[in-house]
């Protein structure tokens, strides 16, 4: 699904910034790796990774990458419609809907992603090492499995209509 990024009011949030070193003949070359999540607070969310010799340029590269990888998640009254599990690498993320007033119960990287996505009542559990890069990717993988109840109803109607 193509979306015009300029139409969305996207907010970016750095999740983690690492200083990484490349060992060369003369010593070590240092650069910075940034993981950033962007979202409009209404269901659009994306994740990006950038690397540069300066922190601001690494963040701007990550934001540009995240804007290219936006996905739409269906929110049902500030939570998700059903429970999902996301997997990436050694990470396993469990996302459960929560009733009004619960808030976002999640750790570090997953919390940042859910905040910019616009989910306000959700329970998330990270099973694995907690590596922020893998945790965010597993969360995106889980959120991309979400289906809107209206969308499922329409799919079932068309499937029944085809049998007649």
List the helices and strands and how they pair.
Layout: E1 11-24, E2 27-39, E3 44-52, H1 55-68, E4 70-72, E5 84-88, E6 91-97, E7 104-105, H2 108-117, E8 122-127, H3 132-143, H4 149-163
Q: Can you tell me about this structure?
A:
The protein has about 160 residues and is of the alpha+beta class. Helix content is about 30%, strand content about 35%. The protein has four helices and eight strands. The strands form two sheets. It has a four-stranded antiparallel sheet. Strands 5-6-8-7 form a four-stranded mixed sheet. Helix 2 packs parallel to helix 3. It is elongated, with a radius of gyration of 18 Å.
The main sheet comes to:
4 strands, antiparallel
Rg over C-alpha atoms, rounded to the nearest angstrom: 18 Å
| Gap between N and C termini | 31 Å
| Percent of residues in beta strands | 35-45%
The main sheet orders its strands as: 1-2-3-4
Classify the helix fraction into a percent range.
Answer: 25-40%
Number of helices: 4
Shape summary: elongated
- The ordered H/E elements are EEEHEEEEHEHH
Which structural class is indicated by helix and strand composition?
Answer: alpha+beta
The low-pLDDT segments are none
Overall pLDDT level: 89
* Structure summary, number of beta strands: 8
């Amino acid at each position: 699904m193509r979306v015009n990024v300029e139409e969305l009011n996207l907010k970016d949030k750095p999740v983690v910034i690492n200083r990484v070193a490349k060992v060369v003949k003369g010593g070590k070359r240092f650069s910075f790796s940034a993981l950033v999540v962007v979202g409009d607070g209404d269901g659009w969310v994306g994740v990006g990774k950038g690397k540069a010799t300066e922190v601001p340029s690494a963040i701007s590269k990550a934001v540009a990458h995240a804007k290219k990888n936006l996905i739409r998640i269906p929110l049902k009254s500030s939570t998700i419609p059903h429970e999902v599990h996301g997997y990436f690498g050694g990470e396993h993320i469990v996302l459960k809907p929560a009733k009004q007033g619960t808030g976002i119960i999640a750790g570090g990287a997953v919390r940042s992603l859910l905040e910019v996505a616009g989910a306000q009542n959700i329970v998330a559990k990270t099973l694995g090492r907690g590596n922020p890069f893998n945790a965010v990717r597993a969360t995106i993988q889980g959120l991309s499995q979400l289906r809107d109840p209206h969308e499922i109803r329409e799919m079932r109607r068309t499937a029944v209509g085809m049998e007649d």
